[in-house]
Amino acid sequence: MTKKNKKIMAVLLLLVCLIAVIPLFAIKGAEFGGSDDAGSQMISEIRGAEYEPWFTPVFETMIGGELPGEVESLLFCLQTGIGVGVLAFFMGRFVERKKWQDK
Amino acid sequence: MSKKEKSIMKLATAFAMAFGIIPSAYAMHIMEGYLPSGYCIAWGAICVPFLAAGFFSIKKSLRENRKSITILAMSGAFIFVISSLKIPSVTGSCSHMTGTGLGAILFGPSAVSILGIIVLIFQAILLAHGGLTTLGANTFSMAIAGPFVSFGIYKLCRSLKVNKLVSVFLAAMLGDLFTYCVTSIQLAFAYPSEVGGVGASAIKFLSVFAPTQLPLAIIEGILTAVIIMALETYALPELKSMGFSKEVG
């Protein structure tokens, strides 16, 4: 990777962090709920009545209630973990391979 | 595509048009039970030909080029990571990205439908995020419509001689945004507003999703461009053999 590319990459990644973090500080006291929930509120607004989903997630039926927040974050982490694992594994191989080839 | 595959494709298309069964329609952000069953079935049916095409397209690229499996796995993993990160946005609510742009640019849009549906099923079953009944609608918006737009924009930008990284950025960003537009329209069809009908309703849903999604779409564009930069540096042989990188990096 050329020096110029490295610089571009660093700047871009910094930008990503800024975009992600700034709202957290800029809007104090906001809830930061999911935009999915905002969507369902909109449905109620358009229909003028609370909407009753006609199907509950299979997993929630099985455990008989809502998925606990902690467990949900565990599963989300699992998803991220699987993804990062695969990405890092292959990227690591590519980086090593290039090192050997360049020699 | 072989003869057998072609006939299977035809069958799938006919199946989709005639019956539109497969009630497991799941849209990216439409929650479980929030779409009337008719819509679930219809969206699910529409996805079937795309999924079949995607399956064959993946098979073909792997047959022609066994090595590309690593890049395919990475594209899938990218969707996994990106779509699991909920990021706070300027509107004070959180949303997440789709991550489908990378795969669409590298492997073409239909291949991504398979990668996307894997993620969607994972989230629907384990996370109660999206849902099995809305799987079809969500697949259509996130794993079909978005990637097709990404792919189209990328090709367009390249033919206009736009810088490669800029093209990647634009493709991923607009694909992400388009996913949410499609979601809004899908919701609007199911819940037309009393005054103004589907159109007014679509605008209402868009006004919820679009401002939240815009900064995230920019992040997605940047991340996709960064990944492409990294791949071009370290995995050039693979990208070349896939016909993605022609010039020597």
UniProtKB/TrEMBL annotation, chain A:
<keyword id="KW-0170">Cobalt</keyword>
<dbReference type="Pfam" id="PF02553">
    <property type="entry name" value="CbiN"/>
</dbReference>
<comment type="pathway">
    <text>Cofactor biosynthesis; adenosylcobalamin biosynthesis.</text>
</comment>
<comment type="function">
    <text>Part of the energy-coupling factor (ECF) transporter complex CbiMNOQ involved in cobalt import.</text>
</comment>
<keyword id="KW-0813">Transport</keyword>
<keyword id="KW-0812">Transmembrane</keyword>
<comment type="subunit">
    <text>Forms an energy-coupling factor (ECF) transporter complex composed of an ATP-binding protein (A component, CbiO), a transmembrane protein (T component, CbiQ) and 2 possible substrate-capture proteins (S components, CbiM and CbiN) of unknown stoichimetry.</text>
</comment>
<dbReference type="GO" id="GO:0009236">
    <property type="term" value="P:cobalamin biosynthetic process"/>
</dbReference>
<protein>
    <recommendedName>
        <fullName>Cobalt transport protein CbiN</fullName>
    </recommendedName>
</protein>
<dbReference type="GO" id="GO:0005886">
    <property type="term" value="C:plasma membrane"/>
</dbReference>
<keyword id="KW-1133">Transmembrane helix</keyword>
<feature type="transmembrane region" description="Helical">
    <location>
        <begin position="73"/>
        <end position="95"/>
    </location>
</feature>
<dbReference type="GO" id="GO:0015087">
    <property type="term" value="F:cobalt ion transmembrane transporter activity"/>
</dbReference>
<keyword id="KW-1003">Cell membrane</keyword>
<comment type="similarity">
    <text>Belongs to the CbiN family.</text>
</comment>
<keyword id="KW-0472">Membrane</keyword>
<keyword id="KW-0169">Cobalamin biosynthesis</keyword>
<dbReference type="InterPro" id="IPR003705">
    <property type="entry name" value="CbiN"/>
</dbReference>
<keyword id="KW-0171">Cobalt transport</keyword>
<keyword id="KW-0406">Ion transport</keyword>
UniProtKB/TrEMBL annotation, chain B:
<feature type="transmembrane region" description="Helical">
    <location>
        <begin position="105"/>
        <end position="128"/>
    </location>
</feature>
<keyword id="KW-0812">Transmembrane</keyword>
<feature type="transmembrane region" description="Helical">
    <location>
        <begin position="216"/>
        <end position="236"/>
    </location>
</feature>
<dbReference type="Pfam" id="PF01891">
    <property type="entry name" value="CbiM"/>
</dbReference>
<dbReference type="InterPro" id="IPR018024">
    <property type="entry name" value="CbiM"/>
</dbReference>
<comment type="subunit">
    <text>Forms an energy-coupling factor (ECF) transporter complex composed of an ATP-binding protein (A component, CbiO), a transmembrane protein (T component, CbiQ) and 2 possible substrate-capture proteins (S components, CbiM and CbiN) of unknown stoichimetry.</text>
</comment>
<keyword id="KW-0169">Cobalamin biosynthesis</keyword>
<keyword id="KW-0732">Signal</keyword>
<dbReference type="GO" id="GO:0043190">
    <property type="term" value="C:ATP-binding cassette (ABC) transporter complex"/>
</dbReference>
<keyword id="KW-0472">Membrane</keyword>
<feature type="transmembrane region" description="Helical">
    <location>
        <begin position="165"/>
        <end position="182"/>
    </location>
</feature>
<protein>
    <recommendedName>
        <fullName>Cobalt transport protein CbiM</fullName>
    </recommendedName>
</protein>
<comment type="pathway">
    <text>Cofactor biosynthesis; adenosylcobalamin biosynthesis.</text>
</comment>
<dbReference type="InterPro" id="IPR002751">
    <property type="entry name" value="CbiM/NikMN"/>
</dbReference>
<keyword id="KW-1133">Transmembrane helix</keyword>
<keyword id="KW-0170">Cobalt</keyword>
<dbReference type="GO" id="GO:0015087">
    <property type="term" value="F:cobalt ion transmembrane transporter activity"/>
</dbReference>
<feature type="transmembrane region" description="Helical">
    <location>
        <begin position="135"/>
        <end position="153"/>
    </location>
</feature>
<comment type="similarity">
    <text>Belongs to the CbiM family.</text>
</comment>
<dbReference type="GO" id="GO:0009236">
    <property type="term" value="P:cobalamin biosynthetic process"/>
</dbReference>
<feature type="transmembrane region" description="Helical">
    <location>
        <begin position="37"/>
        <end position="56"/>
    </location>
</feature>
<keyword id="KW-0406">Ion transport</keyword>
